[in-house]
Design brief:
By secondary structure, the chain is mainly α. It contains five helices and no strands. It is elongated. It starts with a helix and ends in a 5-residue tail after the last helix. The structure holds heme C. Heme C binds next to helix 2 and helix 4.
């Protein structure tokens, strides 16, 4: 392979990797995830995420918990509790975005 071909290959790799790690879920996917958060997660955690069968997921409740714990809880569930695993429906990227969204506080219109 010529030098310029290597350079363009490296550029493509950088671009695609950057998209996966920086951009997060697309706008359409974010809408789906917001809907899931209120409808599905909300069925246990409360429609306004103030708690129900599951604990409250408001920014103040999560502030002392590390990202990895919360992302793993969403993807793998908590065995022995009602918290189900979501990895069949959600990618790690989705779960990271959900945690960021929960930390920022979900607005309810
Ligand atoms: C069937 C009920 C149920 C559903 C649906 C559910 N959860 Fe949970 N969730 C729980 C319970 C119960 C716990 C607490 C588990 C425990 O005792 O540690 C929990 C814990 C959590 C935690 C950890 C909170 C903490 O303070 O450590 C997060 C984050 C979370 N859920 C997010 C979600 C998200 C996001 C969804 C939707 C994709 C969801 N949950 C759907 C029942 C549910």
């Amino acid at each position: 392979m010529t030098r310029s071909k290597w350079a363009s290959l490296a550029m493509i790799l950088l671009l695609t990797m950057g998209q996966a790690s920086l951009a997060g879920p697309s706008g359409a996917r974010q809408l789906e995830l917001r809907h899931l958060l209120v409808q599905d997660c909300g069925s246990c955690h409360g429609m306004t995420l103030k708690g129900g069968l599951g604990p409250a997921l408001l920014p103040g409740n999560l502030s002392d918990k590390p990202d990895a714990l919360l992302v793993n809880t969403i993807l793998l569930g908590r065995p022995g509790t009602a918290m189900p695993p979501w990895q069949a429906l959600l990618s790690e990227e989705d779960a990271v975005w959900l945690v960021e969204t929960l930390r920022a506080g979900v607005k309810h219109e």
